[in-house]
Amino acid sequence: EAQVTQNPRYLITVTGKKLTVTCSQNMNHEYMSWYRQDPGLGLRQIYYSMNVEVTDKGDVPEGYKVSRKEKRNFPLILESPSPNQTSLYFCASRTAGLGQPQHFGDGTRLSIL
Amino acid sequence: QKEVEQNSGPLSVPEGAIASLNCTYSDRGSQSFFWYRQYSGKSPELIMSIYSNGDKEDGRFTAQLNKASQYVSLLIRDSQPSDSATYLCAVPGGDNNDMRFGAGTRLTVKP
């Protein structure tokens, strides 16, 4: 089954404790992205990657890191999480080419206390 | 000006009615447009895409595109309570041509 898999689905942690949210896709997609979703603000892109070892900032990259060492994986790293990073996070992937739709993972709900 | 704008709603319609959802975008060069449905706490699900001016129908859903007015809409005919969700408009844009999302319109269909 074609899918984007995120882990964990839920996480409650404390300020300053490094965490990683994993994302994996099995569709051989070139593009992968991370979004956060907050009430009233919609989906905002954090980082994206156009292929292995190629990443760039989205609209709200502060406080996050990513890496793309393999085509299928695109982990999101919070080195020193803070309460304002409490949010619902989505990983997405799509094939290259203009106007290809995003395929989303099930989401990760992070609470930073 | 936001790149993709939607009325946040909430929009409430009775069961069986037509729900009309609207979206405007700022990038005149955009060539493709998407509507996603998102149930509370779930991930967005692609329901419609449209690339040419005019209407595109898929079951009870019709997407309408007017590039001159930079306007795309989604009509849901014979609305059902199961259509109650937030609808996101998405348009590729920006330097990376990746997807830009509107804030979403929350639709409630009342039995």
In short, what is this structure?
Chain A is mainly β and 113 residues long. Chain A has strands at 4-7, 10-13, 19-25, 31-38, 42-51, 54-57, 65-66, 76-78, 87-94, 103-104, 108-112. Chain B is globular and about 40 Å long.
Q: Let me know the number of strands of chain A.
A: 11
- Low-pLDDT parts of chain B are none
- SS element count, helices of chain B: 0
What would you call the shape of chain A?
globular
Low-confidence stretches of chain A: none
* Structure summary, number of beta strands of chain B: 11
Give the biggest sheet of chain B: 6 strands, mixed
Distance between the termini of chain B: 37 Å
Output the radius of gyration of chain A: 13 Å
Helix content of chain A: under 10%
Strand content of chain B: over 45%
Report the major sheet of chain A: 7 strands, mixed
Strand-pairing-aware structural class of chain B: mainly beta
Mean pLDDT of chain A: 94
Radius of gyration of chain B: 13 Å
Order of helices and strands of chain A: EEEEEEEEEEE
Strand content of chain A: over 45%
Report on the structure:
The complex is a heterodimer of chains A (113) and B (111). In chain A, the strands form 2 sheets. In chain A, strands 2, 4, 5, 6, 9, 10 and 11 form a 7-stranded mixed beta sheet that branches. Chain A has a 4-stranded antiparallel beta sheet with strand order 1-3-8-7, with no helix packed on it. Chain A is mostly beta strands and 113 residues long. Chain A has strands at residues 4-7, 10-13, 19-25, 31-38, 42-51, 54-57, 65-66, 76-78, 87-94, 103-104, 108-112. The model of chain A has no long low-confidence stretch (mean pLDDT 94). Chain A is globular. Chain A has no helices and 11 strands. Chain B has 111 residues and is mainly beta. Chain B has strands at residues 4-6, 11-14, 19-25, 33-38, 45-50, 54-58, 61-66, 71-76, 85-93, 98-101, 105-110. In chain B, strands 2, 4, 5, 9, 10 and 11 form a 6-stranded mixed beta sheet that branches. Chain B has a 5-stranded antiparallel beta sheet with strand order 1-3-8-7-6, with no helix packed on it. Chain B is globular, with a radius of gyration of 13 Å. Classes of the chains: A mainly beta (113), B mainly beta (111). The interface between A and B is medium-sized, with 25 and 23 residues.
